[in-house]
Amino acid sequence: MCLDNGLLRGVGSSRCEEQPPTPTTVTFVDMPEIQVFKGTPEGKVIEATHTIRDIKPDEVFIKVTHCGFCYTDIHYLKAGNVLGHEPVGIVEEVGSECKRLKKGDVVGWGYLHDSCMECEMCMTGREILCAERKMYAYADLDMGGMGSGYIGKEKYVFKIPKGLAPADAAPLMCAGATVFAAIYNNNIKPTDRVGVVGIGGLGHLALQFLKAWGCHVAAFSGSDAKKAEAEHFGAREFVVTRVAEDEEFQIEEKFDFILSTVAGQIPWAKYMRCLKPTGTMIPLGLSSDPDMITPYSDIIVHELKVSGSLVASRHVQNLMLEFAARHGIKPQNEIMEMTADNINDAADRLHKGDVRYRFVLERK
């Protein structure tokens, strides 16, 4: 419809008001099937196929090339959902409302799939804490990183910076985001002394990020078996934690922060005695034991803090990827072809802690 707009824009001028185009879905002509790998009630991973639905205007379809195998996936081996939340791939199709991504972009996504974008948490950039968040293993159960394709919201898909190989970027989508968010959101400073408990999938990345951040970093590990590797990743101090129950850890000085990256409970009181007054303990590893036993009196007397940390918000995720690319931070990977046999083998080895330091599944 054409309206006379002379009063607003000058005599003789006119403006045609066009209705905005109606958002459209991307319809696949032949509705292709995707290959996926999911758990079973017996805890074994099987291969299956799913037919892809149409892409909504704000979504993209991604062809998966790599996916990290995180210990969190172990918790869902019997749940029946498609596994994998550390994927990287190539954008194949984009919805009509997508503006940031285009076909051919190398991208990744992680734990968070969607949120309401209207609550206090979303409006303040903490959408990972949204009460209506849609997370891995609780939403989009028929698609995941361990598969040939994925449909996701554009706003929760991240471009991989140049300088980060897809296989290296994959574990950063969860493991990297987890440790970087703990550093960034807790305002850790380059002058801080920071301890990292556990030199595994999360820990070896935490050491690298904290070294690049400028901190004095100490690695806490059960024995000195990983001492040389920990020092290579950035540790300036190494603390052996397998000591007698009544014996304290031998540290150079106390710490401003300690990050626990192990998947389980630790003797919190002993570690928290390694903190300076006002120091902060940050647990990051998921545990099947829900109870954290902490030294109540020490927390009060020394004004210690325990700070929970999940994974990164979208803004912090992008900062993490840029920081990793700039400083050459990357996981130490064992790459294997994405097959059911290999996934089951990797799951068995993860249970035993037999990996240095991340499994990455690659589609051939």
UniProtKB/TrEMBL annotation:
One of its GO terms (molecular function) is oxidoreductase activity, acting on the CH-OH group of donors, NAD or NADP as acceptor. Pfam families: ADH_N (PF08240), ADH_zinc_N (PF00107). Its cofactor is Zn(2+). It comes from the Eukaryota. Keywords: Metal-binding, Oxidoreductase, Zinc. SMART domains: PKS_ER. InterPro entries: ADH-like_C, ADH-like_N, ADH_Zn_CS, CAD-like, ER, GroES-like_sf, NAD(P)-bd_dom_sf. The keyword Disulfide bond does not apply. Residues 39-361 form the Enoyl reductase (ER) domain. SUPFAM superfamilies: GroES-like, NAD(P)-binding Rossmann-fold domains. Coiled coil: none annotated. Belongs to the zinc-containing alcohol dehydrogenase family. This is Enoyl reductase (ER) domain-containing protein. The lineage of its organism: Eukaryota, Fungi, Dikarya, Ascomycota, Taphrinomycotina.
